[in-house]
Write a structure and sequence with these properties.
heterodimer; A: 5 helices; B: 145 residues; alpha+beta; OB fold (Dihydrolipoamide Acetyltransferase, E2P); 7-stranded antiparallel beta sheet; 10 strands
Chain lengths: 134, 145
């Protein structure tokens, strides 16, 4: 649940900021209340699907960071492509896949970094506790 | 907290009895330690069954539906399933860290974050084990009150 919240909040903030910038140049839909809700639904669904993917990775014992990243990128692209088309942000085409890249990739990197930093913080707290007990 | 120790030559088996009002975190940690130092698991090696004290076990691992317990250098076969052990070892220093592993947290020397969001635990004998994302919270709770 915690991870879903982190992914959702970080990616939502990132997408909204990039949408605000790109909409000035007509490269993204104008940010209004409808788009805000649509983005929220999109980021929430990505967070939930990623959480399910994590469970599958555990079952299949996939421990490689590269494989994990690839799975997450595929999830991002698939859901943004499907939902972006449904919300009328673009028409389904190969060009649309390229159009979503300037938003998808930076938001993905930032979210992945935030998740990694929370993990580092957790490891530091555990190490401090181990040192204290010694 | 009062500590009463009654020593008598008539006593065949040591008995620990805890009388308390509310079970707080410190008391449950104390019980964890008592369980760790008083319980043992029956394990098998070369056809011989021997009791292995919990405090000597580094971790349990399930491989091809067989459960093994790992000591500092030895590996023994255990007839219990991982879920049975998980249930038995509740409120001890042991915690599930992945689908196939239960770790004794008292043997963890350091922890490192991996870029994939998992944790890598280095044990006192130098072995490294991966803590899956799903189990990080339970693992963290064993160290941080």
């Amino acid at each position: 649940m915690n991870r879903i919240l982190i992914i959702n909040c970080t990616s939502f903030t990132g997408v909204m900021l990039l949408f605000s910038v790109f909409s000035k140049y007509d490269m993204a839909p104008v940010v209004n209340s409808t788009v805000t809700f649509q983005v929220f639904i999109l980021t929430l669904s990505i967070a939930v699907v990623m959480s399910i993917a994590e469970k599958i990775e555990n079952k299949l014992k996939i421990y490689s960071a590269l494989a994990d990243m690839l799975i997450r990128v595929v999830i991002c692209y698939t859901l943004v492509f499907i939902q972006g088309g449904l919300f009328g942000w673009f028409e389904y085409s190969v060009k649309a896949l390229l159009t979503i890249t300037p938003v998808c990739i930076p938001v993905f990197i930032v979210t992945y970094l935030v998740l990694y930093l929370t993990c580092v913080e957790c490891a530091d707290a555990i190490n401090k506790s181990i040192k204290r007990k010694k | 907290m009062r500590l009463i120790i009654e020593q008598s030559l008539d006593c065949d088996e040591a008995e620990i009895k805890i009388t308390c009002g509310i079970m707080d975190e410190r008391l449950s940690r104390l019980i964890e330690q008592i369980k760790l130092y008083t319980f043992s698991i029956t394990a098998e090696k070369d056809g011989i069954n021997i009791p292995v004290p919990l405090e000597n076990i580094f971790y349990f691992e399930s491989v091809d539906n067989k459960t093994f317990l790992y000591l500092n250098k030895d590996i023994y076969r255990c007839d219990k399933k991982l879920y049975e052990l998980e249930d038995m070892l509740k409120n001890t220093a042991f915690v599930r860290i992945s689908k196939s592993c239960i770790l004794n947290t008292s043997f963890v020397s350091t922890v490192r974050a991996q870029f994939s969001g998992r944790l890598e635990a280095t044990l006192k004998n130098g072995e490294k084990l991966i803590v899956s994302k799903h189990y990080i919270k339970d693992f963290r709770d064993k160290f941080i009150l």
